[in-house]
# Entry
Amino acid sequence: MAGGVVSLCAMLLVGALVTTLIEAAVTRNSAATTALYVDSVIAPILPDLKTAETLDDVTTRVLDETFGQGALGGRVLSFRLWRADGTVLYSTDKSMVGRSYPPSEDLRAAFSGRMVAQFDRVDDPESASERASGKPLLEIYNPVLQPWSGEVVAVSEFYEVAEEFYHSLSQARLRSWLAVAGVTIAFFLLLSAIVFRGSRIIDTQQRALTQRVAELSELLSQNRALHARAQRASQRATALNESYLRRLGADLHDGPAQLVAYAALRVDSEVLMDPAAARPKREAEILAIKDRLQEAMDEIRSICTGLVLPEIETADLSDVLQRAVGAHRQLTGIPVELSMQASSRFLAPSAKICIYRFVQETLNNGFRHGGGVAQAVRQYYDDGSIVIEVSDKGPGFDPGNIRPGGLGLAGLRERIESLGGSFDISTSLEGTRVKMALNLSEMEHA
# Structure
């Protein structure tokens, strides 16, 4: 719209300027032709106006015949011959001969040696009859020169009936306006095409930038969520480590420490301290102490086995699963079904440790709380993720009754989510299923 308004204003300005220039050029050329013709007709019959103040009767009669009956009679509406002081030496209107008028600007310009022409602007005081004719007139002021000196001695003023000139000028005006309008429209269409193309490019870039901003905003939200999750995981890991240390201390205190303390008390028993005690009683007491110490050693080994991982960093996934299941079978004597889907995908050591601990903890929980009924471990791949499921046919439990400070499930969830994975529990009276999933693509990219 702004381009259209600017183009319209430019068209009006340029059109007015062009038509004005064309009108001035056509008027000047046409007037020059007419003035040359009139001058060629009247110059031979004029006396030496440098010395003569008036025209004689013969010259007047010849001029009357020339502008009344000759070739100029139908072409020139009126004719006047001016002196420099504004006196009319001759006029086709006899009532004006001898009168003096204030020299107009056009008359003074003609006495300076320039031809002056105006079309359809008859506004001089002495031109009332010409204005009353109602015809399109071409007013011409032409200097009359002395042949041998070239000095301006008079000015001829005549009004040419310019009907044909008027039609030619109208056509020239129309053509100039059409040309200016055509160029302006072409310019406007070209400008519009450039603007529309630029607008489409801007819209495309704006949509791309909007999409990019949306993507960056989404990534920023994800980064904030990951940061918050990592911070929570760090805080939770600190709390879990403290809980693990407390549990480890409790296990050592309630298990091996009690057995060792019992053995220490039996060492100071009366049977061993009394030399007169019977030999069978002394041997029975020593055997009891040995059994308690052996039980303490077994519990210490069991605790160490749960803390120390086997060499799984160089093992593949199937070996990790088989070792976790085999350790549980050896510890509990309960059979565990294992099914695996073969794959050569690379697994980071952190993922292998996470899977080992997941299988170890879930099997132990199933044995402790569900009796180890029909325990099974299943591994498969789903949409670029590795999935591990551990299930049993025990009585199930209420997830709402899990203590917030519990170590097993809470530790597993934190460990899995810290690697970007997911953790899920489903339980009922028919059994329990615990599932974890790790996105391999994300882990490989990381």
